[in-house]
Amino acid sequence: MNRFGIPSLVLAMGLATGVPSVLWAQDGGSAPVPVHVSLDRVTETKPLPNGIEIHSGQAILQVTALRDDLLRVRVGAARALPEDASWAVLEEARRSKIPVKAESSGKAVGFATGKLRVSIQRTPLVLTVTDLAGNVITEDIPEHPVEFHGTGFRVYKRSPEDEHYFGLGDKPGPLDRRDEAFTNWNTDSYGWQESTDPIYKSIPFFMTFRKGVAAGIFLDNTWRSSFDFNKELRDGYSFGAENGPLDYYILYGPEPKAVLSEWAWMTGATPLPPMWTLGYQQSRYSYYPETEVRRIADRLRSERIPADAIYLDIDYQLKNRPFTVDPDKFPHFDQMIKDLKAEHLHTILITDLHIAKLPNQGYKPYDEGIAGDHFVHNPDGSVYSGIVWPGPSVFPDFTQKSSRDWWGTLYADFAGRGVAGFWNDMNEPALFEVASKTMPDNVQHRIDEPGFAKRTATHLEIHNVFGMENSRGTYEGLRKISPDVRPFVLTRASYAGGQRYSATWTGDNSSTWNHLRQTTPQLINLGLSGFGMSGADVGGFAGSPQPELLTKWLEIAAFHPIDRDHTSMGTYPQEPWEDGTTQDLNLRRHAIEERYKLMSYIYTTAEEMSRTGIPIMRPLFLEFPEASKDRHPLDLNTNNEFLMGPDLLVAPSPYPDTLDDYEAVLPPVGWYNYWTGEKIHVQGQEAMRVGNDNVPDNDLQIFLHPSVDAVPVFARAGSIIPIQPLVQSTMDKPEGPLTLRVYPPSAAGQTCEGSLYLDDGVSYAYQKGQFLRLKFSCELTSSGLIVKIGPREGSFTPWWSQFSIEVYGATKAAASASTVSGPVTTALDTDHHRLQAVIPDDGKGAELTLAY
Q1: Number of domains in the chain
Q2: One domain, residues 65 and 193
Q3: Please, are residues 206 and 530 in contact by the beta-carbon 8 Å criterion?
Q4: For residue 639, what is the DSSP state?
Q5: CB 3.0-4.6 Å disulfide test: which of 19, 282, 330, 820 passes with 290?
Q6: Residues tagged active-site
Q7: Angle at the Cα of 350 (from 349 to 355), degrees rounded to 5?
Q8: Is 203 within 8 Å of 168 (Cβ atoms)?
Q9: Does residue 473 contact residue 502 with C-beta atoms inside 8 Å?
Q10: Are 620 and 628 in contact (CB under 8 A)?
């Protein structure tokens, strides 16, 4: 044995001068495998129409341009590049190419695109990518060339001290990944803590941000991989995997939004979700029997707590067997689903991927799966079996398209009975009674998938993509069953690109104040990784929350993409009316109500996400990349603030269980208190703290006092936010006008804008033009304010016939107000610092002129 752990070494040293040394291993007559390959110098170059190919001895390095702002880097250790296939990157993106301009000198070779310059230094071999302004996007470390050790590899990149890193999915810990290290290996992590790694998802994509310039790195490798940000090297970060392809992408902004749009172009954007999935969702492990489900539904409605969904965890099933219903616990299951639907409550069922091993017992999923050879195998060809909730279980071979297609058919019965959504849990995959908590490494998966070479792979290669392909099978099956209904699939485990098929959540968190605090960086980083439809178990899953904790969590979660209250078996009841005073109930109800009033804004933001990849929940630097003088991410100063969409800033206490006052940082655009309508006044201290002395009048540091009554929320000056009348479900028709909250800019001549998107909320009719899109604007003049509403786009007819225009920051009544039709009556609400005017909506657009 040698230091690489490989027996029977056969050494073959490169004899030609300048050729990198290569160490080879041979064992038992198998083909030689390179043990140590170092890409330390260029030995041959070959220009390509869309890039360049470099040889470093036996190794091949190919850099190609997919777009002006997107590069692909592929490396092969032994004379050949890895297979050109991907579970994550869409084929049309992977095959994309643009012509480049070759560049060469005595010291380096490379090329340029319309936005980037690629330079590969000959000796030592160093890949450097800059933008055309000279900003370094990524650069190899000369002392640490790309290396292969056996089947594994590692890539090292320079890390300037002012560069910051975001993404990698729902990894616990701080928002900024700098000074952290992570492993990608999907893991069932009940009760995870802030330092736990790995947990449920593997998304090997991260965003770099330095001096206002953003970029992205994606390592497309499904094996166990790792990322080190300044732990091993103070001035470097690195990434690698224990096996599989060295195939990575470089995405250039310079704006962070541009990076996310490229990521969506590469791996797909989150589909437009059904509107009801943005409503409040009630869950626990578990609601049973049927009378308990009905009691929860009745209480939601009697307490006037808006809600759109109820989840059924595994106890609705017969002996925990997926795709069954226990007739004793749920004797009128079909009628219950219908009754819940009549109350405008959608039912979401858990359907774990482990199929009970029940030969000759009439269990359809097992019988069909065996007949179609749809389950994963042991190395000897027998069907693999492991212990999960139903006992001995078998597992669909989701890397076979035919098996995914079969899996999708299993949902036809539940969908036909009116079930609205499905929850794919335990799909890391999680197993019981084994130390690894998952399948053995040598379990066999058959890859039989368009775009891939047909072959058999071990679980080590498929593990991290298994949960994504499970949710893919569910999503694609539902699309076939009900082609005109948008599916809702919730998954626990996934891989890069999994947002195409499902929403997600942060798994089995805990009912602690620290886990409430941890939720913000997790959800932000999930959004930056593609999963814009995400949430956390509100109130915490493990344990029972204190009344104040549940109240505060519900208040903050009202501004998250997914708002689902969920808890574990054995914990105290955690519904909004439980465990607290009447005041607690009123506060919790009020938070959920505000979410429903904001539904038009939330849905508009979700539609933007489906087109651009920009998530609903955002870090501040996504909207304000140059908010600080040195252009570092403003979030590093903000103590858990976040944005809901472009215009609402939520500023909870960084330590919500303490009584201490805290500082909130507001970007330099001007802000209004969302709850009171009052314009936030400058205190002039933030310039010193963030170094933003170029905008002393707008960049604010404000002091807040934590309160259980509400979470501080601020509306951006220059925004127009649509607000709808309160309903108890997104299926209810709002009654009354659509309110447009206008938050004027700071100075005359400045403008504001907003938009609204609406459709039927459930179907794909919007793809045929049956949608509504409105654009709003305003202009602050020396004498007043002009508010403009554009004409309707699309053929969808809205529920309102009037606009209620509310202009905030008002201190006195309007001298006059008019539209093209004549004078308009206004009202001054001094308590909320607003002027209000109601005007008709005929669909052709409108203009309101206010004189002060």
Answers
A1: 4
A2: yes
A3: no
A4: S
A5: 330
A6: 425, 428, 508
A7: 125
A8: yes
A9: no
A10: no
